Amino acid sequence: LLAARTGQVLNVTAVADAAGIVERTAATYVSLLEAAFVVHEVAPWAPVPTARTFRKPKVHILDSGLAAHLLRLTEAKLAAPTAQALTAFGQVLESFVVSELLKEASWLDSVASVGYWRTYDGAEVDFVVERFDGAILAFEIKAAQRLRDADFAGLRTLREKAGPAFTAGVVLHTGPRCANPDDRIYAMPIEALWSAR
User: Fold this and answer.
1) pLDDT category, 100, cuts 50, 70, 90?
2) Rounded to whole angstroms, what are the CA distances from 188 to 79, 121, 174?
């Protein structure tokens, strides 16, 4: 049930109802899975917390192979993609990239917090790193080789809200090209997280 929700806001009540267990037990199981490094809850983040900022964490299955297995996301399903398979792939890809970003953020001494940003108005950024000096680096993850202008909307909104503290925003995608479509906003292949090209 958590694999089906990877990359999404965690609603423990809905998970408990679907599993046929009480909410407290479901919350305990989620905590145990987090302690075993199977899942990770990414807290909501905001430049200035307000009532208009989302408050529930997102859940990510840290092992993308396990998530794909639990979602029955096979090579055959991806070869003849259906809307359901593409959605599942997008969720697993987001969780994979978040897992990589969490590792990289843990190596830095200057990180004050990490999280995702979402407002009730619908603006969202998948992963935000805030340094102790207030500088913000934001990441949006797209399971697409070609990006549309709308793919940068969340980063542009965060840049507007955060002002000069917004250092850079990056859309990580499955395509091969880098781009700089806007001020302090970039597009990079996901593989740039670990390759030196």
Assistant:
1) very high
2) 24, 27, 9
Q: What's the N-to-C CA distance of the chain in angstroms?
A: 38
Backbone angles phi, psi at 91, to 5 degrees: -65, -45
Phi, psi (deg, nearest 5) at residue 26: -60, -45
Give the pair of three-digit tokens for residue 83. 């809307």
Contacts made by residues 111-118, CB under 8 angstroms, sequence distance 24+: 113/43, 113/45, 114/42, 114/43, 114/45, 115/42, 115/43, 115/44, 115/45, 116/42, 116/43, 116/44, 116/45, 116/58, 117/44, 117/45, 117/46, 117/53, 117/154, 117/158, 118/9, 118/44, 118/53, 118/54
Could you report the per-residue pLDDT of 45-87, keeping only the tens digit for each?
Answer: 987 665 455 678 999 999 999 999 999 999 898 887 788 888 8
What pTM was estimated for this model as a whole? 0.90
Q: Measured between alpha carbons, how far is residue 142 from residues 17, 25, 92, 98, 149 in Å?
A: 30, 34, 11, 12, 12
